[in-house]
Design goal:
Shape: globular
Strand content: 15-25%
Protein name: Response regulator
CATH architecture: 3-Layer(aba) Sandwich
Strand order of the largest sheet: 2-1-3-4-5
Order of helices and strands: EHEHEHEHEH
CATH topology: Rossmann fold
Number of strands: 5
CATH class: Alpha Beta
Keywords: Phosphoprotein
Helix content: 40-55%
Distance between the termini: 14 Å
Pfam families: Response_reg (PF00072)
């Protein structure tokens, strides 16, 4: 079973993503901000991180920097979600180490299709 960590500060969106992925038998953990995401990453291994770009305390970009620099895990896939969908923000996320970028708003089915596409690449 694939393990996914969702870090999203909007509770309703986080719950919607979790429900969508759990319905497809993914094991999903949640974090309400980047700091909590880093704590979970220090304890658990995940196949995919789904990170919000703008979160309080520690941003999604800072989580990516920590994962790629301090945790040395370049095999872990990272999908960045953001309402900031301008090309320079997408480029910044990808240069920081995100593997994929998805603009908000999105449908849960579009997110599920993206997750399945990511796992089918391997």
């Amino acid at each position: 079973m694939k393990r996914i960590l969702i870090a999203e500060d909007e509770e309703i969106l986080r719950m919607l993503i979790m429900d969508t992925l759990e319905d497809e038998d993914y094991a999903v953990d949640e974090a309400q901000d980047g700091e909590e995401a880093i704590e979970l990453l220090q304890k658990n291994k995940y196949d995919l991180l789904i990170l919000d770009y703008m979160m309080p305390i520690v941003t999604g970009l800072e989580v990516i920097e920590t994962v790629r620099r301090d945790m040395g895990d370049h095999q872990q896939k990272i999908l960045m979600l953001s309402a900031k969908s301008q090309s320079f923000e997408q480029e910044k996320a990808l240069k920081t180490g995100a593997d994929y970028f998805m603009a908000k708003p999105f449908s849960p089915l579009a997110l599920l299709a993206k997750v399945e596409e990511i796992f089918n690449e391997n």
